[in-house]
Each structure stands twice: as C-alpha cells, then as structure tokens.
Amino acid sequence: PYIGSKPISDIKATDLLATLRRIENRNAIETAHRALQVSSQVFRYAVATGRTDRDITPDLRGALSKPEEGHFAAVTDPAQAANLLRAIDGYSGSFVVKSALQLAPLIFQRPGELRQAEWQQIDLENKEWRYFVTKTKVEHVVPLSKQSIDILNNLQPLTGNGRYVFPSARTPNGSRAMSDAALLAALRRMGFDKSEMTIHGFRAMARTILDEVLGFRVDFIEHQLAHAVRDPNGRAYNRTAHIKERHKMMQSWADYLDSLKAGAQVIPFQRQA
Known about the structure:
It is a single chain. The chain folds into 2 domains: 68 residues, Tyrosine recombinase, N-terminal domain (DNA polymerase, domain 1); 205 residues, Intergrase catalytic core (hpI Integrase, Chain A, Orthogonal Bundle). It is built from 10 helices and 3 strands. β2 and β3 form a beta hairpin. α4 packs antiparallel against α6. By secondary structure, the chain is mainly alpha-helical.
C-alpha cells in the first residue's frame, strides 16, 4: 500500500489524501469514500489502543469528489431540501401517500422496504421498526424519531387494521403494498421531475447532509442505510451496534429537518455523537 509502511502515528492528513487521490483518479469515487470510511475506523481503533493521538479523517471532510448517484436523482442541498419537505407537507393528494413521503426523508430506507413496511414490524412503544432486508435477509433496526412516531400514530386509525402501513389504494382490503409509481407520481405532481428527485434520493439526501452538514460518524449513517459495516478487525457489526447513538442521531436528524422547514438559517451543526 502507498502508506502501508508508515507507522500510523506518522501518517498526516495530506498523506492519506494523496493515497485516496490515487483511487479517485481511477474514477473509483465510491471506493475512495469507502476507503476513507475504513481509514476512520482504523484510526479510531488506533486512538483507543494508544497507537496514535487522533483520528485525522475528519480533516478530509469534503476533500473528495462526490460519488455519482447513478440514475437516482437526489436533492442534497439543505436549502433545496427545505423546499422539498415543505412541498410534501403541503401535498393535497392521498393521505397515505403523503404520510409515506413524510416518513421517507426521516428514516431514509430503500423505497421497496418503506412501501412494504408492516404494522407488526413497528414497535411504537420502543420507537423502532425492525424488518429483514430484502437483499441480505438480515434483520435491520430503524430507530424512530418523535416525528416519525407522530406520522405513524396519525396513520394507524386508517391502515392499522391491515397488514401494510402503506397499502395500495387499488386493493380495497389493503392486501398489497403501495406501488413505487404512486410515490413517484406524487413527487411529479409537486413539480419535482425525474432529473431532480426520486424516492431513492432521500437516502442520498440523508447520507450527504448527516455527514457533511451535521457531522455524524459515517459508520452510524451507513448502519441506518442498511449497508454492511465492519469493525476495525473486519467483523460485521450486529444490527444493534451503537443503537443508543443511532436513536440520538435519528432524532437530531428529524429536528434538523423541522428546522429547515421552519426556515432556519442553513448552517452546519456542531459535530454529534
């Protein structure tokens, strides 16, 4: 490795950045960001075991090119996010669709998982949604903010007797989940075309702002995106890793979105967790 022979205590931010640039220059932008994430885990472990004094990776925040989001267009600027959130709150269509759109940015799960959420998976008392990720079949825990709980409580009298939190309006007995097309159509009615925002784009919005504006640890964010996260020894974290901190992060995120909707000045918060 480019810096593999150096003691970790001798590695400066500029050394790490030069290494990441070599990856970035291959147009492997996402890989460079992942490498920075892993580097942060290594540095935190080194600090905890007395091998170095500090984690240098926060010094490189914003230094790398942003990864492409593929065909999933996303609003990632806080000021633009505020306009989107206000538009959702003002949506005059189906209440169930509106509720799904309000919950989407708060919990930023994959659209298919959100649409197919079941009431039996929701623990309102403990403020958690637990479900098995479709791709990996691994259980995932989503801490629910007060704002998310309010949305679900308001929706429960309407759909709570059925299986799905967000049932399709085309099935009278609610036997099928809402379609992705229903959510996309609502976004289009609000004036956001496919080049501006998709339902999947709420994940990129949260990933970007939680990291670059609110300064939360990347591994906490990756946990909430249901991405595989490993400890410094390469072992996969279990589903409840850092659960208390993740609860705090999700509540701070919800409060921040409320502040954006209220027209608060868009400034970075102090680093959390």
